[in-house]
Specification:
Distance between the termini: 48 Å
Largest sheet: 9 strands, mixed
Bound molecules: flavin-adenine dinucleotide
CATH superfamily of the largest domain: FAD/NAD(P)-binding domain
């Protein structure tokens, strides 16, 4: 059988898999990334991922080490303030606001926001320019045979022999299942609508999360376009409400949108399609098997609150890569050290985001009032506020 030898095979060419390909190739490893679907790199394609990702400071550093930041920075919108707003009273209006300013803990912004389809485009371009990286699309990473010194991975009718197979093939990872790693899943009966809007007031580099019922409504700053202010929106709701909102005609949707946004950015107008994402939390029981490491959504899924999801994924790949300084790539010692380095941080963030999401979903007025008191208490204490901001950044 024809075979190829490479240091690393990455199963999955989502944003995590593509970024990991660049990061490991930039560090000198030969990398083959495999995905059945070619990444969608045009924002007008009906299947384009319209979400945006706010890269927190540590994730930006990972992108910088992977040689990607110089190219990405020009498209990124800095995020200076995270604002939590409570609109859980009887009227749909803001009754309390808590600001978390990056300047309290750092001389840099919290994060830099980039749209996902644009990220895919830039990552694919970067891989094309790396001589030791390749992206194979139209094929899955199929049958895996594990050996102590290498894993054999079938890609179509070709065999790839690698020192490390990385599972970055998403929440329903087939390589994870093939390696016999179970997952624990939490369901919330929620979905998120993702779309972009134009608005009449500038966002001033503030990302706002408005809490009422059903889940948070979050605005994330985007660069202005054609003289109009723009933001991307994640609107979480019960599954039934989210589906109904997606089906509204544009005029009716704009009315609902402006009611839910409480006018924080002036008048908002829908500027793109509305994509619907089911919300779950999920955790893999282990992060490794023989010459196999799980990263990103294949390892952990959380509701989109506090810009943690992909940032955790970048922390995974940063840790897996950094540990090759002291361990042989793909060895048992390397993968055990990786699991040890990441497990408690992943557990902490899954628990924290789960608690925040349940608080944000509160239906009863009493619970909403309790949430309001919690927000005021948490924000009023300076040291606690700063410690939360640092934890949010991954400190
Ligand atoms: C509404 C929403 C908003 C979000 N906002 C943020 C945010 O602001 N900040 C943040 O940090 N995170 C955010 N996240 C999380 C973030 O978007 C995800 O973590 C990220 O997109 C998932 O990337 P991934 O590469 O792990 O998985 P996916 O994007 O699911 O990619 C997996 C890839 O694997 C491929 N694949 C599947 N099976 C195989 C196989 N057998 N062989 C090869 N390939 C295979 C698939 O085709 C797919 O391309 C958000 C999530 C949601 C739902």
């Amino acid at each position: 059988m024809p075979y190829h030898t490479t240091d690393i095979v990455i199963s999955g060419g989502g944003i995590a898999g593509l970024t990991a390909t660049c990061a490991f190739a930039q560090a000198g490893y030969s990398v083959v990334c495999v995905d059945p679907k070619p990444p969608v790199t045009d924002g007008n394609d009906p299947t384009a991922d319209l979400r945006s990702t706010a890269f927190l400071q540590p994730a930006r550093n990972t992108l910088r080490n992977a040689g990607l930041w110089d190219q990405l920075e020009r498209f990124a919108m800095p995020l200076e303030t995270m604002r939590l707003a409570d609109a859980g009273g009887t009227q749909n209006e803001i009754r309390a606001v808590a600001d978390f300013n990056a300047s309290e803990i750092s001389d840099e912004p919290f994060a830099w926001n980039l749209t996902n389809w644009l990220l895919s485009r830039e990552l694919v371009n970067a891989i094309e320019n790396l001589p030791n990286a390749a992206l194979i699309t139209g094929q899955i990473s199929g049958r895996i045979t594990t050996r102590t010194d290498q894993n054999l991975v079938m890609v179509g009718d070709q065999q790839y022999r690698c020192r490390l197979l990385i599972g970055a093939d998403g929440r329903n990872s087939t390589t994870r299942a093939a390696m016999g790693i179970d997952v624990k899943t939490w369901r919330y009966g929620q979905k998120a609508l993702a779309f972009a809007v134009t608005h009449t007031e500038p966002h001033e580099n503030i990302s706002t999360e408005i809490h009422r019922t059903g889940g948070p409504f979050t605005t994330v700053p985007l660069p202005d376009q054609d003289g109009k202010h723009r933001s991307s929106i994640i609107w979480m709701e019960t599954s039934a409400n989210a589906t109904a909102l997606q089906q509204l005609d544009t005029d009716a949707f704009n009315i609902a949108l402006n009611a839910r946004s409480c006018g924080i950015l002036g008048e908002m107008t829908l500027a793109t399609r509305r994509n619907l994402w089911p919300i779950i939390a999920q955790k893999a029981e282990n992060l490794h098997a023989q010459r196999y490491a799980l990263i990103a959504e294949a390892a952990h899924v959380i509701p989109p609150i506090g810009a943690q999801g992909l940032n955790m994924s970048l922390a995974d790949m940063q840790s897996l890569l950094a540990l090759t300084d002291t361990h042989d790539l793909g060895s048992d010692a390397h993968l055990k050290a990786y699991e040890k380095a990441r497990k408690s941080d992943i557990d902490l963030r899954i628990r924290g985001v789960d608690a925040l999401n349940r608080a944000a979903m509160a239906q009863s007025e009493n619970l909403r009032d309790l949430r309001l008191k919690g927000l005021s208490a948490l924000h009023g204490l300076g040291p606690l506020r700063k410690s939360i901001m640092k934890k949010g950044l991954g400190a």
